[in-house]
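stage 2 :: seqdesign
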C-alpha cells in the first residue's frame, strides 16, 4: 500500500526517535523554520471559533460572534490594524451523518448551513474580515502543508488506538474522562464527563501525534504567561489536565469510518482528525496555503467557548510548537447561556433564535444585552424580559434620556463653548461638580483596563454608573429652570457640558458594542469622525476645533423606540 511506503520515508522514520531526541527537537521550537512577518504593535488579529454546520445558529453563536467583534472594534478604536476571522467547520463524522439524515450530498448540506451562519454574521453587524469554510481548496492545501511539517519534524507515527470516542464532540476521551450513566430513556451507557455526550469504544489503526512530549513545555508557557488563558478558572482547568500528563493524540480516522474530510497526504485510507483540520483554519485565513510569511499570525486573542478549551489551549499550541510556529497571545474562553437556569435545549423548548430577537429588539440593543449580561467565567441566563429590562433601564432610561433632556432646543446647549468649559473645569470645579468630574476623568482608563481583559460587561457597568450619576447631577441642577431666568446664567452651559460630556464619553466607549446607535449619538453631538477614537475619550477633549459651527441635532429620543 502507498500508506506503508509513506511510513518508510526518512521523514517519518524520524517520528520513531526516542523521547530524548524528541525533547531535544522541541527545545528550540518557536525559533524557526517558518517565518512570520514582524508584528508591529499596530496589528491585531482576533479569531472566532469556526461553527459546526450540523444545526441552526443559536444565541450562543450570536454571543461568540458579537464578543469577538467587540474585541476587534475596540482594537480599531485604539488605532490598530485589525483582522477578524470567522467561518464554518464542515468536516467530520457528525456532518456526514447529518447530511445522510437530510438526504443531501455533504457539500450541499454544508453550504446550506454555512450560509445561515454567514447570514447571522451580517444580521449581527459583525466586522469580520475573513469567512472561511474548511471545505475550501485553500484550506485543504494549508492542512496538508501543516501535516507534512509535522511528519518532517518526526511528530507523526502510525499506531493502534483503542479508547472512547464521542461522535457528537468529535473528540477522544481517556478512561478517566468518561463514566457510566443512565439516560432519560433508562438506557445505560458510557458518557463523557466533560460534555455529557455518549461515547463509544473504538479500536483502530490511526496516525498519532506525539503530543506527550510537549506537556512540560505547555506547562511552562502557561505558567510564564499567566494571562494567556482567561479567565483563571479555565487556566486552572488546563493546568490540571497538563499536570496529569498528556497522551499522544490520534490524528486520523480510517477512511471507511469517516469519509467526509481531508485525506492524510500519501494515504487515502485515512482521514485527518477533524479537530486538527479545524484548528488550522486560523493559519489558512492568514495565507498559510500560499506562503510561510504570515501578516497577522499569531492571533492576539482567540475567542472560544468554555467547552472547546482543551482543543485550543492544549492540542492547538502543541501542534504549533511541533510546526515551529508562534503561539496565540491570548485565549479568551467565555461561558455559556442558559434559559431559566437550564441548559438551552430544543427538546425542552428553551432556545432563543437570534434572528427573531434581532428583529424584535434591534441589533444594537441585543448586542448590548448579550455583552453586558454574557458570562466570561460564569454562565449567563437569557430571557426576553431581561433584554427588555436592559433596554428600558440602561439604553432608554439612562443614555437616551440624558442626551434627550440636555439636547432639547429649549435649553440651547452651546457646543462651541464646551472645549473652553472642559479646560476650566479641570482647573477648578464647583463643589457640586467635583464628584462627577473626577468620575468622568477616570472613567476611560478604568473601562480600558476591563475591556482589554475581555470583561466588557464589567466595563459597561462602569459606563452606565457614570451616566446614572450624570442624570442625577442634571436633575439636581435643574437647567430647565435656569433657562427661564433673565439673564440666563453662565452656569447653564456648565451643567449641560457635564451631561453631554458624559454622553460623548459613553458613546465612544460604546462604539465597539453598539456601533450604529453610538455613532448616531455622536452625530447628534456634532462630533466628527476623526474625533471618535479611544484617544478622544478624555475629559473635555471632544469638542474641537473651536472655529467650526457646532450644532446639536434634535431627535435623539427616537434612537431607542418603544418596544411593541
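stage 2 :: out
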Amino acid at each position: 500500500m502507498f500508506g506503508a511506503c509513506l511510513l518508510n520515508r526518512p521523514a517519518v522514520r524520524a517520528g520513531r526517535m526516542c523521547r530524548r531526541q524528541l525533547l531535544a527537537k522541541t527545545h528550540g521550537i518557536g525559533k524557526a523554520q517558518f517565518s512570520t512577518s514582524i508584528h508591529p504593535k499596530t496589528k491585531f488579529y482576533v479569531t472566532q471559533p469556526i461553527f459546526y454546520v450540523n444545526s441552526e445558529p443559536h444565541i450562543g453563536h450570536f454571543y461568540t460572534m458579537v464578543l469577538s467583534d467587540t474585541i476587534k472594534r475596540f482594537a480599531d478604536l485604539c488605532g490598530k490594524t485589525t483582522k477578524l476571522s470567522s467561518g464554518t467547520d464542515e468536516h467530520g463524522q457528525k456532518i456526514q451523518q447529518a447530511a445522510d439524515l437530510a438526504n443531501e450530498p455533504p457539500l450541499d448540506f454544508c453550504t446550506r448551513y454555512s450560509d445561515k451562519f454567514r447570514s447571522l454574521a451580517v444580521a449581527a453587524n459583525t466586522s469580520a474580515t475573513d469567512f472561511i469554510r474548511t471545505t475550501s481548496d485553500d484550506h485543504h492545501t494549508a492542512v496538508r502543508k501543516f501535516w507534512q511539517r509535522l511528519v518532517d519534524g518526526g511528530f507523526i507515527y502510525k499506531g493502534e488506538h483503542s479508547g472512547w470516542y464521542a461522535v457528537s464532540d468529535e473528540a477522544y476521551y481517556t478512561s478517566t474522562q468518561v463514566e457510566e450513566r443512565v439516560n432519560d430513556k433508562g438506557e445505560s451507557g458510557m458518557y463523557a464527563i466533560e460534555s455529557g455526550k455518549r461515547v463509544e469504544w473504538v479500536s483502530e489503526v490511526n496516525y498519532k501525534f506525539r503530543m506527550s512530549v510537549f506537556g512540560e513545555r505547555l506547562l511552562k508557557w502557561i505558567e510564564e504567561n499567566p494571562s494567556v488563558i482567561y479567565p483563571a478558572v479555565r487556566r486552572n482547568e488546563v493546568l490540571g489536565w497538563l499536570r496529569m500528563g498528556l497522551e499522544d493524540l490520534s490524528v486520523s480516522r480510517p477512511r471507511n469510518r469517516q469519509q467526509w474530510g481531508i485525506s492524510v497526504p500519501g494515504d487515502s485510507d485515512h482521514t485527518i482528525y477533524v479537530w486538527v483540520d479545524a484548528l488550522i483554519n486560523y493559519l489558512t485565513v492568514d495565507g498559510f496555503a500560499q506562503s510561510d510569511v504570515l501578516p497577522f499570525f499569531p492571533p492576539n486573542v482567540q475567542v472560544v467557548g468554555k467547552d472547546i478549551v482543551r482543543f485550543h489551549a492544549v492540542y492547538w499550541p502543541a501542534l504549533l510548537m511541533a510546526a515551529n510556529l508562534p503561539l496565540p497571545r491570548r485565549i479568551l474562553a467565555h461561558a455559556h447561556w442558559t434559559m431559566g437556569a437550564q441548559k438551552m435545549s430544543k427538546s425542552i423548548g428553551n432556545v432563543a433564535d437570534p434572528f427573531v430577537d434581532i428583529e424584535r429588539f434591534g441589533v444594537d440593543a441585543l448586542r448590548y444585552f448579550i455583552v453586558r449580561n454574557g458570562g466570561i467565567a460564569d454562565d449567563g441566563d437569557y430571557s426576553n424580559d431581561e433584554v427588555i429590562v436592559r433596554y428600558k433601564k440602561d439604553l432608554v432610561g439612562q443614555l437616551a434620556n440624558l442626551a434627550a433632556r440636555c439636547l432639547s432646543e429649549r435649553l440651547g446647549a452651546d457646543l462651541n463653548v464646551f472645549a473652553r468649559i472642559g479646560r476650566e473645569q479641570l482647573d477648578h470645579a464647583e463643589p457640586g461638580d467635583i464628584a462627577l468630574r473626577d468620575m468622568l476623568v477616570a472613567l476611560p482608563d478604568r473601562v480600558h483596563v476591563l475591556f482589554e481583559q475581555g470583561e466588557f460587561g464589567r466595563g459597561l457597568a462602569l459606563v452606565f454608573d457614570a451616566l446614572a450619576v450624570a442624570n442625577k447631577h442634571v436633575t439636581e441642577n435643574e437647567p430647565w429652570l435656569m433657562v427661564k431666568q433673565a439673564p440666563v446664567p453662565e452656569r447653564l452651559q456648565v451643567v449641560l457640558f457635564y451631561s453631554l460630556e458624559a454622553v460623548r464619553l459613553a458613546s465612544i466607549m460604546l462604539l465597539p458594542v453598539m456601533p450604529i446607535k453610538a455613532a448616531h449619538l455622536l452625530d447628534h453631538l456634532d462630533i466628527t469622525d476623526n474625533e471618535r477614537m479611544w484617544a478622544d475619550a478624555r475629559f473635555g477633549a471632544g469638542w474641537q476645533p473651536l472655529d467650526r459651527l457646532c450644532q446639536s441635532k434634535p431627535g435623539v429620543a427616537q434612537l431607542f423606540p418603544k418596544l411593541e
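stage 3 :: structure notes
- The CA atoms of residues 2 and 133 lie 29 Å apart.
- The radius of gyration is 27 Å.
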